Automatic annotation (TrEMBL):
A biological-process GO annotation: transsulfuration
GO molecular function, one term: cystathionine gamma-lyase activity
E.C. designation(s): 2.5.1.-, 2.5.1.48
Family label: Belongs to the trans-sulfuration enzymes family.
Name used for this protein in its record: Cystathionine beta-lyase/cystathionine gamma-synthase
Alphabetized UniProt keyword annotations: Lyase, Pyridoxal phosphate, Transferase
Enzyme class: transferase
GO-annotated cellular components: cytoplasm
InterPro entries per UniProt: Cys/Met-Metab_PyrdxlP-dep_enz, PyrdxlP-dep_Trfase, PyrdxlP-dep_Trfase_major, PyrdxlP-dep_Trfase_small
Pfam families per UniProt: Cys_Met_Meta_PP
Length: 381
């Protein structure tokens, strides 16, 4: 790492943390696929950092260092999926522990956490964390070991005040973990606001090209017991990212600040346009002044409000599906944060979670905003 300490996110990302491959002079880091690393005649490791690739991989370390710098973290750990990162976090809890988790978040997290908590006799309390008083009351009543929030949330785009959530968790003797996937490390830095651990599905905006599955946890306090436990669990249980995925992720991250800037500008333009459309009943986007979380989002997000938005069309499921079916530029597919725009009818995927039948979720890409608006205009009209 040869970059000065004071450079900005776009410089860190564009130069992959300042890595030069010294043996070749390459400005791009190499991939080393070896699973095992050799010792010399005296049985000393040729490179003391590398023994076996379950825990030692130069390209994974380089990518983690770039992520840690972007996040304002001391350390970051990569996992083979966002869900593997979440599982590693919650596996540190003893049986019988207590957790407070935000309701109405990414369904995969809720489902896994419910199953896991039932198996491990963990008391799981789901609360609308965007309501500061409800969150404070849940922390006081239950004294959770971990408070887990997701902001902006997927697919409701609720905003949770991270600094307030950290105070609630800490006053109860617990830790705050934040799923910051929809914001990316470019727009939001939960650790600076008091969170203990920040999590991302790197599959989404961080990679940004819909071609790598990965997850990340990062902390400002690497000496904390929970971080030691997470590292040990990753090493011993083997939920590591492969070198090719880490390399692709780093390559995707070189344009992360640029992509996020463009997506956020596009998303805001589209959200405003949708808000004024007669066939749209409501728009959920924290960048809109009318959004209940806008004031909080403005203080804890910098440079934009992200690529994710949801809107309700007038009518129900048939009307929403008709709009989705007419779109030509938005791919009808799940996920978010890629350079290409995606659209989803969440009620078809998760009818049991109370998602409105008229809700359409959009991940806005880096295409021309007016092309995207023209597509939406055609589909709504
Ligand atoms: C996609 C997603 C996850 C899960 O990440 P995977 O990489 O798919 O395992 C967790 N949280 C949020 C907010 C997500 O969007």
């Amino acid at each position: 790492m040869s970059l000065p300490n004071d450079v900005k996110a776009s410089t860190i990302a564009a130069q992959a943390g300042g890595i030069i491959d010294t043996p070749s002079g390459g400005v791009v880091p190499p991939v080393q696929p070896s699973t095992t690393f050799v010792r010399d005649e005296g049985y000393a490791l040729v490179n003391p950092d590398n023994i076996y690739s379950r825990d030692n991989s130069d390209i994974v370390r380089i990518t983690e260092n770039v992520l840690a710098r972007l996040e304002g973290a001391e350390e970051a750990l990569l996992f083979p999926a966002g869900m593997a990162a979440i599982a590693a976090l919650f596996r540190t809890l003893p049986n019988g522990a207590t957790v407070v988790v935000q309701s109405g978040i990414y369904w995969g997290t809720t489902k896994w956490l419910r199953d896991f908590s039932a198996r491990r006799e963990i008391a799981l309390h789901e609360v609308d964390a965007a309501d500061p008083e409800a969150l404070a009351a849940a922390c006081t009543a239950h004294t959770p070991g971990i408070v887990f929030i997701e902001t902006p949330s997927n697919p409701w785009l609720k905003t949770v005040n991270i600094a307030h959530a950290a105070k609630c968790a800490h006053a109860a003797g617990g830790l705050l973990a934040v799923d910051s996937t929809a914001a990316t490390p470019v727009l939001q830095k939960p650790l600076e606001l008091g969170a203990d651990i920040v999590m991302h599905s790197a599959t989404k905006g961080i990679n940004g090209h819909s071609d790598v599955l990965a997850g990340v946890l990062a902390t400002a306090a690497p000496a904390a017991q929970i971080w030691t436990d997470i590292k040990t669990d990753r090493h011993d249980a083997g939920a590591v990212l492969g070198p090719f995925e880490a390399w692709l992720l780093l390559r995707g991250m070189r344009t992360l600040p640029l992509r996020v800037e463009r997506m956020s500008a596009n998303a805001l333009k589209i959200a405003r346009w949708l808000k004024a459309h007669p066939k749209v009943a409501d728009v959920y986007y924290p960048g809109l002044e009318s959004h209940p979380g806008h004031a909080v989002a403005r203080t804890q997000m910098q440079g934009g409000f992200g690529c994710l938005l949801s809107f309700l069309v007038q009518g129900g499921a048939p009307e929403a599906l008709a709009v989705v079916g007419k779109l030509k530029l938005f791919h009808r597919a799940t996920s978010l944060g890629g350079v290409e725009s995606l659209v989803e009818h969440r009620h078809t995927i998760e009818p049991h979670t109370g998602i409105p039948e008229s809700l359409i979720r959009v991940s806005v890409g880096i295409e021309d905003a007016n092309d995207l608006i023209a597509d939406l205009s055609r589909a709504l009209g």
